[in-house]
């Protein structure tokens, strides 16, 4: 199984290298369209190789997806935490009730009742 994982990551690495080599041309990324940049005075731009733009877009998409999924699953995590709190409270109450039931009994008999 380990070799399959290594082969998979080697394949991913080869594909990324091939994409990088095929897209080495430089592109200019602008923060805003030219007319809006002139109007607001925010004419920031950067020149990068195209493969960095492609891979950066993939990474940004993955991060946005992870954050979106984490936010979407919040209610499930909160529900699980609430259920665990209720379970602990119920277990404490059971122990307390068993302790009251065992009051006045012989210690050995109380232990036997508690365990089974």
From TrEMBL:
Domain of life: Bacteria
Any single Pfam family the record assigns to this protein: LapA_dom
Lipopolysaccharide assembly protein A domain location: 23-94
Coiled-coil segments: 73-107
Membrane-crossing residue ranges in chain numbering: 48-71
Any Gene Ontology CC annotation: plasma membrane
Protein known as: Lipopolysaccharide assembly protein A domain-containing protein
Lineage: Bacteria, Pseudomonadati, Pseudomonadota, Alphaproteobacteria, Rhodobacterales
């Amino acid at each position: 199984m380990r070799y399959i994982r290594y082969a998979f990551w080697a394949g991913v690495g080869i594909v990324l290298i091939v994409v990088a080599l095929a897209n080495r041309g430089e592109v200019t990324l602008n923060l805003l369209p030219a007319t809006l940049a002139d109007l607001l005075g925010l004419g920031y731009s950067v020149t990068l190789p195209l493969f960095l733009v492609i891979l950066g877009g993939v990474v940004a998409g993955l991060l946005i997806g992870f954050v979106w999924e984490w936010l979407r699953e919040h209610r499930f995590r909160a529900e699980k935490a609430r259920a665990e709190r209720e379970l602990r409270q119920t277990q404490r109450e059971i122990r307390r009730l068993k302790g009251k039931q065992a009051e006045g009994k012989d210690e050995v008999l109380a232990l036997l009742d508690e365990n089974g």
